[in-house]
Design brief:
The protein is mostly helical. It has one domain. Helix 4 packs antiparallel against helix 8. The protein is elongated.
Length: about 290
């Protein structure tokens, strides 16, 4: 069965339930449909979930023995451990921003969004389904990345409740920001085919400038200032505070993890992403009007 036929056959049952049942049940049903469609599309499954793991294994193998902290009071941190925190943030960005910014234009091109809008189903249920699917995928991605990092790169899981709490709010705020930006950015690609060509370079640029593949404090100042405008840099910084020693904060550009600023910037992107969604989301392609 093709992805298009799956979308058509599964949209109707949820639409028929719009007249009855609670809003939560509709959202959960739509989320389940979105998740089934995702796992049945092998290309999306590999690119979104497995690609970050493959990158972690490749770069971790290359830089596994490189120590990036000088001897002294700061416990030794390897480049692979530093890189792992960035890949977790990248995994969250992939499930939120990249996934939605690529798949929504494809659905728009196939007329799926137009059919959804013509059903009795409330419009918010469609977005709730996307958000629930992304949340499930992000959870799976983070668990996979953590399992690989702990097994192969000696990454230590948070050992205090405060660090787990920080891990939670950084991940949730980052996921919300990336999800809303992905929905908003889905209107940029004129066709479904153009989605990957438009979105993938942006994701790569943000990864290279946000301290994922390289130490952030080694990047040129103009590149640091550019990355600081976007959520990924702050997600990486917040996750470093969770998985790296507290004394490593002195190696940050500001000399600390700046968790208050991390929360402020990510929350601002959540609000900004919501505004962009309300302004820029389109149910039909430009050629359809």
């Amino acid at each position: 069965m093709s992805a298009q036929s799956i979308e058509e056959s599964t949209a109707r049952p949820v639409a028929r339930r719009a007249g009855g049942g609670g809003g939560l049940s509709l959202a959960l049903a739509q989320g389940g449909i979105e998740f089934k469609q995702f796992v049945r599309t092998r290309e999306s499954l590999v690119f979104t979930l497995l690609f970050p793991v493959m990158l972690m294994l490749i770069f971790g193998s290359i830089f596994g023995s490189v120590v990036i902290t000088p001897p002294g009071e700061i416990p030794a941190v390897t480049l692979s451990q530093y890189f792992v925190t960035g890949m977790i943030a990248s995994g969250i960005m992939a499930t939120g921003f990249q996934n939605l910014a690529i798949t929504i234009p494809i659905e728009r091109d196939r007329g799926v969004l137009k059919r959804y809008r013509g059903t009795p189903m409330p419009k918010w249920v469609f977005f709730a389904g996307k958000i629930l699917c992304v949340a499930a995928l992000a959870f799976i991605s983070v668990v996979m990345l953590l399992a690989v990092a702990v097994a192969f790169y000696d990454l230590r899981l948070p050992d205090t409740g405060q660090k787990w709490f920080t891990f939670g709010w950084v991940s949730v705020l980052g996921l919300i920001a990336c999800t809303l930006c992905g929905i908003a950015f889905s209107g940029v690609a004129k066709t479904g085919r153009a989605g990957p060509a438009v979105v993938t370079p942006i994701a790569l640029i943000l990864q290279f400038t946000s301290g994922v593949f390289f130490e952030y404090d080694d990047l040129p100042p103009w590149m640091q200032q550019f990355a600081a405008l976007f959520p990924l840099k702050w997600m990486c910084q917040g996750l470093r505070s969770v998985f790296l020693p507290e004394s490593f904060a002195s190696q940050e550009v500001a000399g600390s993890y700046e968790l208050g600023k991390v929360a402020l910037v990510l929350a601002a992107w959540c609000v900004g992403g919501l505004v962009l969604c309300l302004v820029g989301f389109r149910w039909t392609s430009k050629r359809e009007g």
